Amino acid sequence: MFIFILFIFQACKQVNALAKLRENKLVDKLWREFSIVQHHDAITGTAKQQVDNDYRKRLAEGIESCQTVMGDAYKKWLRTKGNLEHYFCNQLNISYCKVIETYSEFLITLYNPLAHNVTHWIRIPVIARNAFKVLNVDNEKVPVQLVKIMNSTQQIPERQDSKATHELIFRAYLPALGYTTYFVRNTKKPVSSQLSVESKLSHTNKIISNQFIEMEFSHWTGLPVRLTNKHKQITTTFQQSLMYYKSALNYDQPSGPYIFRPEDNRPNVFNFNATDVTIFTGPLVTEVYLEYSSWAKQVLRLYNDSITVEMEWTVGPIPLDNYQGKEVITDYLTGLNNNREIFTDANSRQMMHRRYNYRPSWNFRNTENVAGNYYPITSQAFIKDVSRDVQFTVFVDRAEGGGSIKNGSIEIMLHRRGTKDDMLGVGEPLDERGVDGDALVVRGKHQLLLDTKEASTHYHRLKSLMILNEPIISFMRVNRKMRSKFNLEWSALKRALPREINLLTFEEWEGKTYLIRLEHIYEQHEVNYPVKVDLTDLFKNINIVQLTEMTLGGNMELSELSRLKWKSANLDKVQNEYADRIPPNGLEITLKPMEIRTFKILKSRIKQGPYKFSHIPKTCFSLLSLSLSLSLSLSLCLSLSL
């Protein structure tokens, strides 16, 4: 939820600046609501239910405001006329987009907030009576595949009024910091040629594969047993399944909103067999559906040309048998010997080394062998084999908790429901209800990568960026003749940024200025060299005439910053850490590993008025922009706003 809102907010600021809309009050709306839910009880889910309901209402209103900004930008960029509207479907993850179900022709607009060219697999819920044709901006036909929407998805309460029967799948190519479009038309041709082939497991093991990855499933259990990287000739035993812990009901310290405490250190397995497996095969993707119970299902998905396996899980409503809460996990058990050591990210930046039952700064005596070895995972976690050049990585699409509880494993918490308050302040059990009044149904995705250590290091940063900054999708009802008059693709950049550099912030600032933040996404031991970025002629419609480096928060020029200077016992001189920061030619900058630099750029020949935000200090807005990207504390910023 928070990650989805974050990339909506960043994209909203980008398009408002790039399209010169000046719709600052609408941008401000999401900013205000998002700043409120930076409260520690909002992020962790430890607020009372009525407070959480208010958070959701506020965020929904803020998202709607920002989607208005994006729709206005599309109208300007595409040069549409009349009352054509862009519709955003925020529940595509559950195959729900009611507005397009009756459309025979429509245009899909995809905005890429990253400063890199990306590819992305698009999945659109449709009613598959006839075949579909998808055209790119060059009027070329795009390969498609239709995959049946399973009953488990159709039964999700939020999509009960949907008549969509299949998902239309195709691969999209998006320019850096820009948009592209795809035209979809329902033809009169038979749909059978685009349907996936449905099958069950036979008397032999089933192997799904593409040119990079191979995964084998047991015909006895229906579960995966082996994972292979064909390109690198790496193979490992691989067991993956959904499980659950029973929540501790002890009166001294039960499991609850703040506390994860299982009743037993061994998770419970579902009564699952191979007959509960359904396989869909086609030219673009192969999907293996596993239904553990009526409230726990998953899909293992292998796209053509992908080097990762996608695991989509759906959990809920979790039953409370005999008043017993449950903590649902997924367990990835590999053949790697990692000594139960795992690496997890810190706010999607540095990777932290975690050792089982160990803390680096004190002698740790653990009484909770499962919960005491869980750590926050914001974007990814991986384990390394101590004797082989093999690494297994799991990318998450939201903040989750996990650890390496067994040798060779990565265990991740997916969903929880309890019956006890843990007596730490909430005063309520963790028992959130869905739209139908029953317990909540949750869906998410993991991406799985098996590769060498070096290759994994170079890939995992970019992959995390793409997961946390997915393209923003909208739909517009048009016909082919109307489409021919549109500007179907555009990028704000003349060239993409180097793969080591991420455009963390881009927004209109005061008068003729923009504020940008650039970050080097790799650590020193991953990429041990600085990267230069030349801003000269980088943007198509922005002529930069002056570049001023600011402090990280953007509230003052770096040259005006005065810090305390410390002498070390082994140094004779105080070293100036900012000596090489000022660009020598004014527009070429250098970023070292893990470095973030903030700049105010002055543009020419564009007359614009001041950027107003009610009575909120500009300094606060800048600090918040950074905080939303890095999950920093907002207490100072919010206190300045009151």
TrEMBL record:
<dbReference type="InterPro" id="IPR011682">
    <property type="entry name" value="Glyco_hydro_38_C"/>
</dbReference>
<dbReference type="InterPro" id="IPR048534">
    <property type="entry name" value="Man2a1-like_dom"/>
</dbReference>
<dbReference type="GO" id="GO:0004559">
    <property type="term" value="F:alpha-mannosidase activity"/>
</dbReference>
<dbReference type="InterPro" id="IPR015341">
    <property type="entry name" value="Glyco_hydro_38_cen"/>
</dbReference>
<dbReference type="GO" id="GO:0046872">
    <property type="term" value="F:metal ion binding"/>
</dbReference>
<dbReference type="InterPro" id="IPR041147">
    <property type="entry name" value="GH38_C"/>
</dbReference>
<dbReference type="InterPro" id="IPR050843">
    <property type="entry name" value="Glycosyl_Hydrlase_38"/>
</dbReference>
<dbReference type="Pfam" id="PF17677">
    <property type="entry name" value="Glyco_hydro38C2"/>
</dbReference>
<keyword id="KW-0378">Hydrolase</keyword>
<keyword id="KW-0479">Metal-binding</keyword>
<dbReference type="Pfam" id="PF07748">
    <property type="entry name" value="Glyco_hydro_38C"/>
</dbReference>
<keyword id="KW-0326">Glycosidase</keyword>
<dbReference type="InterPro" id="IPR037094">
    <property type="entry name" value="Glyco_hydro_38_cen_sf"/>
</dbReference>
<dbReference type="GO" id="GO:0006013">
    <property type="term" value="P:mannose metabolic process"/>
</dbReference>
<dbReference type="InterPro" id="IPR013780">
    <property type="entry name" value="Glyco_hydro_b"/>
</dbReference>
<dbReference type="GO" id="GO:0030246">
    <property type="term" value="F:carbohydrate binding"/>
</dbReference>
<protein>
    <submittedName>
        <fullName>MAN2B1</fullName>
        <ecNumber>3.2.1.24</ecNumber>
    </submittedName>
</protein>
<feature type="domain" description="Glycoside hydrolase family 38 central">
    <location>
        <begin position="10"/>
        <end position="59"/>
    </location>
</feature>
<dbReference type="InterPro" id="IPR028995">
    <property type="entry name" value="Glyco_hydro_57/38_cen_sf"/>
</dbReference>
<keyword id="KW-0732">Signal</keyword>
<dbReference type="GO" id="GO:0005764">
    <property type="term" value="C:lysosome"/>
</dbReference>
<feature type="signal peptide">
    <location>
        <begin position="1"/>
        <end position="17"/>
    </location>
</feature>
<dbReference type="Pfam" id="PF21260">
    <property type="entry name" value="Laman-like_dom"/>
</dbReference>
<dbReference type="InterPro" id="IPR011013">
    <property type="entry name" value="Gal_mutarotase_sf_dom"/>
</dbReference>
<dbReference type="Pfam" id="PF09261">
    <property type="entry name" value="Alpha-mann_mid"/>
</dbReference>
<keyword id="KW-1015">Disulfide bond</keyword>
